[in-house]
Specification:
Residues 338-375 form the Zinc finger Sec23/Sec24-type domain. Belongs to the SEC23/SEC24 family. SEC24 subfamily. Residues 881-951 form the Gelsolin-like domain. Keywords: Cytoplasm, Endoplasmic reticulum, ER-Golgi transport, Golgi apparatus, Membrane, Protein transport, Transport. Residues 656-739 form the Sec23/Sec24 beta-sandwich domain. By secondary structure, the protein is of the alpha+beta class. Among the domains are: 140-195 and 858-986, 3-Layer(aba) Sandwich (Severin), CATH 3.40.20.10; 247-257 and 750-851 and 990-1013, Four Helix Bundle (Hemerythrin (Met), subunit A) (Up-down Bundle); 337-395, SH3 type barrels, CATH 2.30.30.380; 416-654, von Willebrand factor, type A domain (Rossmann fold), CATH 3.40.50.410. The protein is built from 28 helices and 36 strands. Strands 1, 2, 30, 31, 32, 33, 34, 35 and 36 form a 9-stranded mixed β-sheet that branches. Strands 5, 7, 13, 22, 24, 25, 27 and 28 form an 8-stranded mixed β-sheet that branches. A hairpin with a 6-residue loop joins strand 9 (360-362) and strand 10. The chain starts with 5 loop residues before the first helix and ends with a helix. 46% of the residues are buried.
């Protein structure tokens, strides 16, 4: 039935005091709430057996065979119940929001936005995020004497501190990136209840609110909304003349306001599936977004609609992510009963349909009927019939099967590791060799060694290749030198790759003596390519992992590289030539490794130019990882500690071996492009000799045909050998609804997943074309998304408008895009060395979302005026101070701030900092006594020092991955390079020739207004 227009609704409204007619929720007295009268099947309804819909359970005629009552999800909503539940995001297809009353349609947009925020039960926000620029310059200047008095609380002075938005509280040691950060509301100025000794006493709340950003000087969009003419044009622009859209997402004005960073941890809109789409009521039928996420959580029904929306369609995968405290382990199916579709080979999952009394199941990908295995309802352990509805594969979107022998080409191989260690002059002088040998020695017990099957070998490289006989019967290891670099061979067939348990003592002896063996070496040559070939010969029969520690540019033997860093090319259109591999050897060698199930991790120490772009080809095509340590010197404790920690975690990683990944999708969808560290063996099969933990993959999806089904499914299957020697299949299933509404597509878009997609596409464009093209591609995609939203969702015509708006779920997408443009991997600059840029690009390609988002938009905290409970350990975890926007307006000359992006931690100290703060935090008398650069924070008995050390410790272990951030002390008037490096993270400000956030938004708005969509 066609719904009446808003005009007809208004005409039929009953007189005041009478009950309005509710045709959809009307229920006569005495009829149960769950009763539904006989009706025609809804459009698109398909009975489980493909025939006529069965009668309703409450009607005469009984229930259909195999029906399982779904009490958790009633078929009809009780009368008067809101479709938006408390503490939930608005659903796709919310009838209450869609069918707004005429009164609501004529409310001011600002009022509607406020009402919708109240309905959604969002965490409370501080009145504003920043001081206005005008207010910033009206602050009372403070001099050192006044600050010192303020520290002791003698003289009340104006706060002069930026307002702080939200108080973040991290729960478990590793907050999942997909879960919003718990927030606690603090006072508008973010100051603690008890006056901090490092700042001034609080002012009355009214004065604080007046000083908050945007209160004294209203943003442009407020003035725009208050103009009656603009109100009318905005209302007409937002009105839909046809049927109301199924989903209405609040339109957020962007210009004139700081980005709402309190929502930066929001992982995207929830997936809203039709009722009873899964065979069980489990809340885990869809996989967790940290394993697999889509850029859009509602799939367009036609290719034309996808092109019209201009939204990217891709999957972001981290199928082998690590588990931290509080994470649910992946359920394991151990009975070897694996049900798969005979045609498309899809694994049975919660979205299949059982028919014929449960004897057969219909595939949710290709709709073929398959027989249910006889042992599917039988428990081998208890020798009793089992309840199939409790099987993990029908209740969880991410499960792991123990694979039978037919999934093995050969028996599961034991983990094997070969270390290729540079022993040239620079490796000795920098302390790399000594640190690496000590770390391996200390980590031998942490290497995966289930049932004592692991094997280990060591090769050292300078101008010759040194092998080591690790036979446990020898009194000490025996060195075997091969100087023929053109045709490398193994000097003896056995004992070069030795059993770790049996040769443990021999290995320890070798590692203890290794630094002294080469301490007097002056050999500056390095034959890395030949050393890699030697390691490959050792591992190719059994497969395994090469771990290469490289300090000198390979300058002899196979794979020789030459210094090609040209300062004149940095920042020009020809810079991309420095970002591609200089020698074809490393890619061809990686392909040979992948074919023989050999992976490679590359650990590069950059004292000078190291050609990261060429060396990282080997990990890229073998599923490995690249670690880069520029300017490494083991005499600095911070350098040695960072490398030792990350190297030790890498050695202890529970990796997957001999792996392949295949992604299947519903009919009409196809995987078209793949991004990440792997080798594409066939059109859709990804080969990974090694599956490291917490590595990201992005897969682009293409529509080949229109979708005529209510939902589509994606299933990722990762076949691998675990470190325990079991062949396993990790199956990750995700079901998404199909929509014909462009507004639903925009309401379902995931800004974090889109950011990951933009990152890998920009890196690809930068390497194959130019860095300028990569940055332009990001800007063009943001213009397309916001332009289509303005034209086809809000209904505004072509032309310039006073405001730039975005849907609430994409309000931070321009900020993330600006973060990409200003990132070291893509930024327009002639000051970024090629090695550092190449390493940054590698990270953009492989970082999971939980690491990528803070890597692009760092967290900034104020330390001198922290709330009383910040830095304390509570039952919910460590309490963090409120996060600040990344702008220099938040940096006071007498303040102390902490900024972290997951890779580095910076402590910024203003030049007029209170001397007592220097004593309490750094154990120095004054600002002049501070020394900038890499530091280790002392451990003192002061409350401030204890809190900051707690925060830093939490930051170093809270996220997934092996990274150990280095701590830098940055003085406001200290080292100019270090200061500029810190300020480059303040991406909301203008830097060099790169726009500020507001300028970027204005540029986007101008582009949107001048183009047609």
């Amino acid at each position: 039935m066609q719904q009446p227009s808003p005009v007809s609704q208004s005409a039929q409204r009953p007189p005041p005091g009478q009950q309005p007619v509710r045709p959809m929720n009307f229920r006569p007295q005495g009829v149960p709430a769950g009763f539904r009268p006989p009706m025609q099947p809804r459009p698109g309804f398909q009975a489980p057996n493909g025939g006529t819909p069965p009668p309703h359970p409450g009607l005469p005629g009984g229930i259909r065979p195999g029906f399982v009552p779904n009490q958790a999800r009633p078929m009809m909503r009780p009368v008067g119940q809101s479709p938006i539940q408390p503490h939930a995001r608005p659903s796709l297809g919310s009838p209450v929001v869609a069918a707004a009353s005429p009164i609501q349609q004529h409310q001011q947009p600002q009022q509607i936005h406020q009402q919708q925020q109240q309905q959604e039960q969002e965490p409370p926000m501080s009145p504003t995020a920043q001081h206005s620029t005008a207010e910033h310059h009206r602050r009372k200047r403070m001099y050192p004497e006044q600050i010192t008095k303020a520290y002791s609380g003698d003289v009340p002075t104006s706060p002069g501190y930026p307002p702080i938005q939200q108080q973040q509280q991290y729960g478990s040691p590793a907050m999942s990136a997909q879960q919003p950060v718990q927030q606690q509301f603090v006072s508008p100025m973010g100051t603690p209840a008890v006056g901090s000794p490092y700042t001034q006493p609080q002012q009355p709340l009214q004065q604080q609110q007046q000083q908050a950003y945007g209160q004294q000087q209203q943003p442009a969009y407020n003035a725009y909304n208050q103009d009656p003419v603009n109100q009318m044009s905005s209302q007409f622009g937002n009105m839909s003349m046809g049927a109301p859209p199924a989903t209405v997402t609040p339109a957020v004005p962007l210009l004139g306001a700081r980005p709402q960073i309190a929502d930066i941890g929001y992982s995207g809109p929830a997936i809203r599936l039709p009722p009873n789409i899964s065979v069980t009521d489990s809340p885990n039928v869809n996989c967790d977004p940290s394993y697999q996420a889509s850029t859009i959580n509602a799939i367009p029904a036609t290719e034309a609609l996808l092109k019209k929306s201009r939204l990217p369609f891709a999957l972001v995968l981290a199928p082998y992510r690590s588990l931290k405290e509080g994470d649910e382990p992946v359920p394991v199916v151990k009975d070897s009963v694996i049900a798969r579709c005979r045609r498309c080979r899809t694994y049975i999952n919660p979205f299949v349909t059982f028919v014929e009394g449960g004897q057969r199941w219909k595939c949710n990908m290709c709709f073929l009927l398959n027989d249910v295995p006889a042992a599917f309802d039988y428990d081998n352990q208890t020798q009793q019939p089992a309840d199939r509805w409790k099987r993990p594969e029908l209740n969880y979107g991410c499960v792991e099967f123990v694979a039978p022998t037919e999934y093995m080409v050969r028996p599961p191989q034991a983990p094997s590791f070969v270390f290729v260690i540079d022993v040239s002059y620079s490796a000795i002088q920098s302390g790399m060799l000594a640190t690496a040998a000590r770390t391996i020695l200390d980590s031998l017990d942490r290497l995966p060694n289930y049932e004592s099957r692991t094997r280990v070998g060591i090769i050292t490289v300078d101008s010759a290749i040194h092998f080591y006989n690790l036979n446990p019967s020898l009194p000490e290891p025996q060195m075997l030198i091969v100087s023929d670099l053109d045709d490398i061979y193994l000097p003896q067939p056995n004992d070069l790759l030795a059993n770790l348990t049996e040769s443990m003592q021999t290995l320890k002896t070798l590692l203890e003596k290794l630094p002294d063996m080469f301490k007097d070496s002056v050999n500056v040559n390095n034959a890395l390519g030949t050393g890699l070939q030697a390691a490959f010969k050792m591992l190719s029969p059994v497969g395994g992992k090469i771990i290469c520690l490289q300090s000198t540019l390979p300058n002899t033997g196979t794979g020789t590289l030459k210094p090609r860093e040209d300062v004149k090319l940095l920042g020009t259109s020809k810079e991309s030539t420095l970002l591609t591999a200089a020698s074809p050897f490393y890619k061809s060698f990686a392909v040979d490794c992948s074919r023989s199930q050999v992976a490679c991790d590359m650990i590069i120490f950059g004292g000078q130019y190291s050609d990261v772009a060429s060396l990282s080809c080997v990990p890229h095509y073998t599923g490995g990882q690249t670690y880069y340590y520029p300017g490494f010197n083991a005499s600095r404790t911070e350098d040695a500690l960072k490398f030792a920690h990350e190297f030790s975690e890498l050695l202890a990683e529970q990796i997957g071996l001999e792996a392949v990944i295949r992604i299947r999708a519903s009919r009409g969808l196809r995987m078209s492009a793949f991004h990440g560290n792997f080798f594409i063996r066939s059109s859709d099969l990804l080969a990974l000799p090694n599956v490291p933990r917490d590595q990201n993959y992005v897969v682009e999806v293409t529509m080949e045909d229109d979708l005529k089904v209510p939902t589509v499914c994606f299933q990722t299957a990762l076949l691998h050998t675990s470190c325990t020697g079991e062949r396993r299949i990790r199956v990750i299933t995700m079901c998404l609804p199909v929509s014909n509404s462009i507004s639903e597509l925009y309401a379902s878009a995931n800004q974090q997943a889109i950011t990951a997609y933009l990152g890998v596409k920009a890196v690809e464009r930068a390497i194959t074309s130019k860095l300028d093209d990569a940055r332009d591609a990001i800007v063009n995609k943001i213009v397309d998304i916001l332009g289509v939203y303005k034209t086809h969702v809000l209904g505004s015509g072509q032309g310039s408008t006073p405001q730039l708006t975005a849907p609430d779920n994409l309000k931070l997408l321009p900020l993330f895009a600006l973060g990409l443009i200003k990132h070291d991997g893509l930024r327009q600059s002639s000051q970024i060395p090629t090695d550092m840029r190449s390493n940054a690009m590698n990270m953009l390609n492989t970082m999971p979302l939980q690491l990528l988002i803070p890597y692009l938009y760092a967290n900034l905290y104020s330390l001198h005026n922290m709330p009383a409970d910040a830095g304390e350990i509570t039952e919910n975890g460590v309490v963090f101070p409120p996060a600040l926007n990344l702008t220099a307006e938040n940096l006071e000359v007498h303040g102390c701030y902490l900024l972290e992006n997951g890779q580095n931690i910076y402590l910024w100290v203003g030049r007029n900092v209170v001397p007592q703060l220097c004593a309490d935090l750094f154990d120095v008398k004054s600002y002049e006594g501070l020394k900038g650069g890499k530091v280790t924070l002392p451990i003192l008995e002061t409350p401030l020092n204890r809190k900051v050390n707690t925060l830093i410790g939490k930051l170093r272990e809270m996220r997934r991955g092996n990274y150990y951030p280095t701590l830098y002390l940055v003085k406001e008037d200290g080292d100019p390079y270090l200061r500029l490096w810190f300020l480059a993270h303040l991406i909301e400000d203008r830097t060099d020739n790169i726009m500020s956030y507001q300028q970027f938004l204005q540029h986007i708005k101008d582009r949107v207004g001048s183009a047609s969509f």
